[in-house]
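1st attempt posting a full record on here, be nice pls
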Amino acid sequence: MTFNFITDVRQLARSILVADFSDAEIQKEVDAAQAKIYGLTQKSDWDSGDVQLEYVNKLIVKQAAIWVLEHRDTSSFDNILDKWSTEVNNGIIGISDTITDATLDVDIVVIASDYESYPLALEDDDQAIPYRSTDLQV
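the predicted structure (as tokens):
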């Protein structure tokens, strides 16, 4: 499925007219929705290789539509907005729970080594001998 975020948000937001909400204004809400979802999932490099990409895109469209509709008189569809907000938040939680450290944008580096200085080396090896450099640098 190919997403055209502006068109999809416009349709979900009750076919809101361009005169009521411009493409640029909808794009601003789409960008904010992406920032919310990418920030909360701690992943911003979603691509076609991710099995949850379509779901993430649907959440982005739904969140942006919520924010677009909030600019209007929402009294007639408050229940729908509450339901959608719950769906988006639960979706983000569900995605976050399934993301492993290997899929996050953050590099995790763990470095471990034995002590190399003589007093600390004795903690690892009680037979350690003092280290003396043979490299003389002048």
